[in-house]
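Service request form, structural biology core

Requester: graduate student, group of Dr. S.
Request type: structure prediction, single chain
Budget code: on file
Notes: please return the result as structure tokens.

Sequence provided:
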Amino acid sequence: MSRTFSPIQLLEQTIVRRYHEQLWSPFCKAIKRYQLIQPGDRIAVCISGGKDSMLLAKMTQMLHRHTEIPFDVVYLIMDPGYNHENRERVEMNAKLLEIPYTIFESDIFEVANSQDKNPCFLCARMRRGCLYRKAQELGCNKIALGHHFDDVISTTVMAMFYGGQLQAMPPRLKAQNFPGMELIRPLYLVHEEDIIAWKNANHLQFIQCACRFTENAAHDHSDSKRLEVRNLIRQLKQTNPHIEDNIFASIHNLQLDSMVAWKYHGEQHSCLDGMDA
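Core staff response, request fulfilled:
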């Protein structure tokens, strides 16, 4: 007798079978390589409503179900001021993926959109603070965000081109203002194109950023430096297929003795230190 699978079981099978090499394997590899989850952790998976965080929540749920590592997980949705349609879409998708979520509200969109300069930076900073605070209230020691491989390499290039510094997006990070809290990025090795392929294969529709600022700027991407960098990397990839992997490898292979100056834990260092000794 053939076994009948439910819709959610079929969806989960696409992760562990059809997209095993693209999604499940790099997800598990990142957790092991960067020691993102340890026994006794209580992790708040932060769901923004986009494709990345939704997939992260689903795979974390599957890992929690089958792993031998004893850890707890909660699925946290923060409503920063979504309109009714987007709020409904986020909750509908969480239910569709059978993710038991906790939702809370904030006024982040209202505050960030009232600023003339760097509203996206302010929004991201406020979001993270709210998520840390709520996660602590729920007894968590970590929050998990849905940043993926493409976010990592574009951030690295942006820091050099527009920030004048060699700076990466680490897979795990201790919170500065929330003692005992840590941020982890389990999708660190997962490529965005594979997330999109999985989404399309399952006919899923997720929200974008959904803030009023990006809605107003939806047809003007000239100021989007991240998009500019991603387009540049895409162009370079046409003549150098290894460009993305090389950028990623560079943040794992820093030749410190060739650097002129660097900071470590906020302390400035120079290649001239000790030269006269």
